Description:
Layout: H1 2-22, H2 25-31, H3 38-44, H4 49-55, H5 58-70, E1 81-82, H6 87-95, H7 100-107, E2 112-116, E3 119-123, E4 129-133, E5 138-141, E6 161-162, E7 180-185, E8 190-198, H8 203-207, H9 212-216, E9 222-228, E10 237-238, E11 252-253, E12 257-262, E13 268-273, E14 279-282, E15 294-298, E16 301-308, E17 313-319, E18 328-334, E19 346-355, E20 358-365, E21 369-377, E22 384-391, E23 397-399, E24 405-407, E25 415-416
Amino acid sequence: MRLRSGRSVGLDEKRRRTLAAAIPDDLLIYEVLVHLPAKSLARCKCVRRSWRTAITGAAFVRHHLKLSRARPPSSSPSLVRATPTTTTPRLLRSASTASHSYRRRGITRWILPTHCDGLVAIATVSDRVFVCNPATREFVALPPGIHNAELHHSEMLPPPVGIGVSDTAKFWLPAYRRYRPLGFDQWRNRYVVARYFFRTCDGAVAGDHHSQAAANNDMGVMGHEVFTLGGGGGSWELTQDPPHAVGVQRPICTRRALYWHADEPQPRLMRFGLQDRAFAVVPRPPAGWSPHDDMAILDGKLCYVYADSEAASFHFWLAEDAPDLKWSLQFSIEIVQESSPDANPIHYLAPVTTNGDKVLLVAVGRYSSYLLSWCTVAASNDGAVVEQAVDLHHELRYGRPDGSKYMGCQSQEFLHCVLPYFESLVSLTACNY
Length: 433
């Protein structure tokens, strides 16, 4: 019986191996493996040399990225929270083995991430910029760019960076709301990070942006540079200077350009083309301006949110990404403010992503309140219906590196960052796409 059972098991195993060998590698790789998450693919690379070669190849990485982009967002989105003293080191360790030396250089302070194709760029309180891929756990520190003299006037927040956001007792829109936009340059097939910097720093120029010379950048006070990931000689490249001083709103990157705000002496929108690497002033929506305005990418289109403080409403404008932007008003949300002394009025509303006729929004109250909500946009003129999904401040527990938990309402020093995210196998140091 034992011998017969052993033979049976051996025959079954042989049959399975024969069947597996009969499946062509191309079919197995591009119809099965490409649908696996990055963590599983890391194990698959150890199975066969042919699998490893295919999984690390550009064709596989591009196809995996295409499928990741196509997946609809979850109705219960996962959340990433950045804090100056607790969650930030844990976030970075999940992406890579961030050393203590990085954290000593400012990485544990308030960080403001931007994203593109699963990559995350992190601005710090120094001239350093970090980029990570949480799916592959790759983490790199970019070399320092030209020193930003404005940093001498901002002790709390890092300056803005892009890839292809004081007073903690109440909600603030900081004068130093800084991001580093991150985007994909399709003409050079490279991911780029952008940053601005002040060449000189006096209180009027670099501190509050109100100097006429600084606002118009007539004297070249402000410069701009880009860093090419996996290419470009490993250093920052100076570009044309921005025509106006960069404002407080976060920049945004489309598949064609980076968009920076300018707010002095009047509101403007500046477009930095990724193809020609040149600046141009482009039309804003035919609406007013508020320091609480925001921008995002929704369904491949540029979205501008105008915060009308007088009417307590937010207006969502969309435009196709082009040198001559043509804006159309899509919908508006009116905020019903409570009149009680304990009211926490919403005065900042940021779009995150879409799922069919729903838009995921982050609503921020004046007194440290962060609400994540789904907004259903009606096809008719009936307006939009907003349904609260979760209170980031009072309904979620967050983890510390030591395993302990705490509620957001138990800490005043925090900054919620909600980003649309999908897995990517894109390398930060090599062009594998």
